[in-house]
Specification:
two-stranded antiparallel sheet, about 40% helix, disordered C terminus
Length: about 290
């Protein structure tokens, strides 16, 4: 039984079907996406929790984090196994649905309609008892080669780390793309750089492979970059915060144009540099 019809629900449903499982029902409050997913999974559709079948073996709650509370308040089972897929939400409160509750958390960024190789996706399991953990682990092994038991505290830490590694990084990619677009440059110019960065991380720690002007204390370049970003306070602030963080981590004293050392406190470049203060990064090109 799949509860939800978003990205996670779509992917898990597809993977379970490929592994030979039967999806008996899809429950979703919004009819159109729920009905569409039910058709894809050859399952029945329901839009009211009281109409859910009680004959499924496992109930997977694949909704947004803030939607889990609504499911907990509106759903009550008997002894069926019920698990949600969130990395940030603990099991607290799940006992209101069923004593046999747990977590089934795939660590991957997922988009509906875009296939993902689940065989390499790590899935983290937590259960209210050994039976729940065993059943969820067996289910996970049918779609992934990497299945681990992980408690709520460590799963939360993993989720925070994943936000930095994926969500924040993707936003930085957006900033890069936006800057290049305004200069009529293609974002694909950065692909080799991005690929090399990831390749190096497979054999070294991030601490070992950090490069760039902030790491080497290149105060002049940092100042020029900040001047370039005049007129876009959000991007400038992000650049400044990250540069200060890198400089603090590597304890690299920075020298300004006069040879005076600084520690990432005030990046005010005193010499005349080309100032792109009129650069409007918010508006689309006409």
């Amino acid at each position: 039984m799949i509860i939800g019809a978003g990205n996670m629900a779509w992917h898990l449903g597809q993977q379970f079907i490929k592994a030979g499982h039967k999806i008996v029902e899809v429950y979703n409050r919004s009819k159109i996406p729920g009905q569409e997913l039910a058709v894809e999974l050859d399952a029945d559709f329901v839009d009211r929790p009281e109409n859910l079948t009680r004959k499924a073996d496992i109930y997977i709650i694949a909704v947004s984090d803030h939607g889990i509370d609504d499911i907990i308040l509106g759903l009550q089972m008997d002894k069926q196994i019920v698990a949600h897929t969130s990395g940030a939400v603990p099991m607290t409160g799940m006992e209101r649905i069923s004593l046999n509750h747990g977590i089934f958390y795939p660590l991957q960024t997922l988009t509906k309609g875009t296939p993902a190789d689940f065989s390499v996706v790590p899935i983290f399991i937590e259960g209210a008892n050994e039976r729940v953990e065993q059943v969820l682990t067996e289910l996970a092994h049918t779609i992934s080669k990497n299945v681990q038991i992980l408690d709520s505290r460590k799963r939360r830490a993993l989720h925070v780390a994943a936000v930095f590694a994926n969500n924040f990084t993707n936003y930085l990619y957006h900033i890069s793309s936006d800057i290049l677009r305004k200069e009529k440059l293609d974002f694909s110019l950065l692909y080799p750089l991005m690929q090399e960065t990831l390749a190096k991380l497979k054999g070294h720690s991030p601490l070992e492979v950090q490069t760039g002007p902030a790491k080497r204390g290149d105060y002049r370049t940092v100042g020029e970059h900040l001047n370039y970003l005049q007129g876009h306070d959000a991007y400038r602030e992000i650049y400044l915060v990250l540069s200060e963080g890198i400089m603090s981590l590597y304890k690299a004293p920075a020298e300004d144009a006069m040879g005076e050392e600084h520690w990432g406190q005030d990046f005010e470049f005193s010499e005349d540099v080309e100032d792109f203060h009129d650069l409007d990064l918010d508006e689309d090109e006409e």
